[in-house]
Design a protein that fits this description.
The chain is an alpha/beta fold and 461 residues long. It is 25% helix and 35% strand. It contains 7 helices and 33 strands. α6 packs antiparallel against α7.
Length: 461
């Protein structure tokens, strides 16, 4: 057996999931299966042995180096996530899509947001699943990570049940969904185009415009904004998401900004920002787009041409650039805006905590006094005011904590971000992963770009 250590050596991968047999000298002619197998065992390889490969090495049909053993990789459990009534509608739309022609743009799920009733369940926590253990080639158990849990938090006009796994609506209204929050807002309807009669809009809830938004107008909503027509060079700002049925043609002016996601059919010469994903059905042309989530444009033509796109979680499109080699820039990585938002939310959360502690002490002092003697009218008024302030501050704390959690998850996912190009990317496209840049000098088809060991590389889709 000692002779075999002069003939062979084993290379075990760092994750102990693979063992490679290498040969240093000619093998004995009378080498047996049992001898080689015993050598592997003594070298620390006891699991995942490829017995057919061992036999092939013995017979001389396969010459080292060769993978002689492979372990079983552990599998991570699924993270907990928030299911909402919008997910149920999306599943229904997918089933109904088979009845519609592929050439038709279907943004029905964007426009037809369900109205919910007070007391109705609008969201549920789907609990995490356990990981599955793996086995290294050395027989070591490789523990699978369990899925991460999440804590549901109440949003605007929503409540969490005692088991902390369901969200119910406190009012009749339309829902607005964030990664870990569900809000229910009253709705302001505009039955037609925005014009001088309606003027600019600023509403506490959701805004639903059943026509177009011309250039020069401003629409601001604490919840979602839904436009059934198109948006020109206007300014739309939403505390929730923005959905535009017929697309954006902004001629380089105006701005679309959403704290949730943005969905539309096309974007032309526009400035668009979303704290969530930006999903476009057909094309993004000569625009400045920034998403703290992902940018997705992979339906129909699904092309991006000209302008700058920046996304924290990655880009998934059909085509970038064109045959005229129009300069196009794609940025992957953490933006200055995201880092500033993280710091702002940290400060907002700290201020809310300080305010809660302050009001809590004042309230306790008044309640303790009330146990021993009746309160004066002024003291009763102060007690009510403190209770209202406490409730409002608690709501602000929940919102800040939820938003901060979403930002921090975006920062964690940034390391795995990729640029997927399902059809082709043309020359004069610049790809940036943080400080690293790669200029495309020839056409590539069906590739995924990613950062690996400080180099932007690619592989087939």
């Amino acid at each position: 057996m000692s002779d075999l250590f002069e003939v062979f050596e084993l290379e075990i991968s760092q994750d102990v999931l693979q063992a490679k047999l290498k040969q240093k000298a000619p093998a004995p002619e009378n080498l047996t299966y049992e001898e080689l197998n015993a050598f592997l065992q003594q070298s620390g390889v006891s699991a995942g042995l490829k017995h057919d490969v061992i036999a092939a090495v013995i017979s001389g049909d396969v010459l080292p180096p060769v993978v002689i053993a492979e372990g079983k990789a552990p599998k991570a459990g699924k993270d907990a996530f928030l299911w909402t009534v919008l997910d149920e509608q999306a599943a229904s739309d997918i089933r109904n899509e088979e009845l519609e022609t592929k050439s038709r743009v279907n943004l029905r799920e964007v426009i037809d947001i369900p109205t919910v009733r007070s007391g109705e369940v609008v969201g549920k926590k789907i609990h995490p699943t356990a990981g599955t253990d793996g086995t290294g080639v050395n027989g070591e158990v490789l523990p699978g990570k369990n899925g991460k849990d999440l804590t549901l938090r109440p949003g605007k006009n929503t409540r969490i049940n005692d088991d902390a796994d369901e969200i119910t609506s406190a009012i009749d209204g339309q829902i607005s969904v964030e990664p870990r929050l569900v809000h229910v807002y009253p709705v302001y309807e505009v039955n037609g185009d925005l014009d001088l009669k309606t003027g600019n809009l600023d509403f506490i809830g959701n805004i639903n415009i059943r026509g177009n938004v011309p250039a020069g107008f401003s629409v601001k909503a604490q919840g979602d904004i839904r436009v059934h027509g198109s948006v020109e060079a206007a300014r739309l700002t939403a505390g929730g998401s923005i959905y535009i049925h017929q697309g954006i043609v902004a001629q380089g002016d105006g701005a679309i900004e959403a704290e949730g996601e943005v969905r539309t059919s096309f974007i032309n010469q526009a400035n668009v920002f979303a704290a969530g994903d930006i999903t476009v059905s057909t094309s993004i042309l000569h625009s400045h787009i920034e998403a703290h989530g992902a940018i997705i444009c992979n339906e129909r033509k699904g092309n991006v041409c000209g302008g700058k796109l920046a996304a924290v979680k990655g880009v998934d499109v059909n085509e970038i650039g064109n045959q005229m080699n129009t300069p196009t820039e794609i940025y992957i990585g953490v933006s200055k805006r995201l880092l500033e938002r993280e710091e702002h939310l940290r400060q907002q959360k700290a201020r809310a905590n300080d305010e809660l502690n302050k009001n809590g002490k004042l309230l306790k002092k008044i309640i303790d006094k009330e146990k021993h003697q009746p309160l004066s009218d002024k003291e009763r008024t102060t007690k009510k005011r403190i209770r209202r302030s406490f409730s409002n501050t608690y709501e602000q704390l929940n919102e800040a904590a939820g938003a901060l959690d979403a930002v921090q998850r975006s920062l964690q996912l940034n390391e795995q971000a990729k640029i997927a190009i399902r059809r082709q990317v043309f020359p004069m496209t610049d790809l940036y992963f943080g400080k690293y840049r790669r200029r495309i000098t020839s056409t590539h088809q069906g590739v995924i770009f990613y950062l690996h060991q400080s180099e932007i590389t690619f592989e087939p889709v």
